Amino acid sequence: MDIILKTLTCGSFIGMIHFIIVGILYQNPIVAKIYKDTSSHPGVKKWDNKLKYIISMFLGTQLEVYIISVGFIFLISILGKTITNTLILGFIISGIRVYPRFWNMWIQSSYPNKLLIIEFINGTIGSFVIVFGLYLLPI
Predict the structure, then answer these.
(1) CA nearest 22: which of 51, 52, 64, 84?
(2) pLDDT given for residue 118 in this prediction
């Protein structure tokens, strides 16, 4: 029961922080321009309703944060809550979360390479935001 409560409370808080930081990463002028320039590419999904897109993105991301939170809370209780273990978990979670998506999209889709690189970088940063955010919370 304790891990469920920790996951819900810590995961909710970190999920909001993660969503804000990743939003800033994607909406900075350089990245936003790259996305705008590729918006007509056939590999890029079109969203007519921006609010629906943002809500869908938040809910999907939040579920991902809850899953990562469970893994982090469980593993850090075994490994010990140190900065080194958190860094190791950050690399592991980034690798599990970001690399397979990047690789599959690169070899199986026509998604623009520039956007794949942005997804890879921002996904890695986002993973570390989640892991280090959880590290900083009283778990």
Answers:
(1) 64
(2) 97
